[in-house]
Design a protein that fits this description.
- The protein is of the alpha+beta class and 110 residues long.
- The protein has one domain.
- It contains 1 helix and 3 strands; from the N terminus they run αβββ.
- A 3-stranded antiparallel sheet has the order 1-3-2, with no helix packed on it.
- Strand 2 and strand 3 form a beta hairpin.
Length: 110
């Protein structure tokens, strides 16, 4: 899955999940006089982990490349392993990068 798709789907699912959870609980969350209680779950504006606001990602991105003898591969290689399979020389490499970032929540949501 592409990183862009992962971030988009994760944020969308969090947004919809908070709404869905509140909607499901709404009928049972009423005061004695019948008026509704405040929503149970909210996304808090901001991007401060210690205060519980924002959405934080810690993602490992893996890039793999392989090549057969005679072909070239353009990649920044972290490590290279060469093996001999059925008389053909093949090479493969894998590079793993970690990225951490926060997405600021613009407004209260729930």
């Amino acid at each position: 899955m592409e990183l862009e798709t992962f971030i988009k789907e994760t944020l969308t699912q969090i947004y919809r999940g908070v709404e869905s959870a509140n909607t499901e609980l709404e009928p049972s969350r009423t005061k004695e006089d019948g008026s509704p209680l405040p929503k149970m779950f909210l996304l808090q504006p901001g991007a401060k982990k210690d205060s519980g606001s924002g959405v934080f990602f810690d993602v490992a991105v893996t890039v793999k490349s392989s090549s057969n003898a005679g072909a070239s591969a353009k990649a920044s290689l972290l490590s290279v392993v060469e093996i001999n399979v059925d008389g053909k020389q093949q090479g493969s490499s894998e590079q793993i990068s970690r990225i951490s970032f926060a997405v600021n929540t613009n407004q209260w949501h729930g």
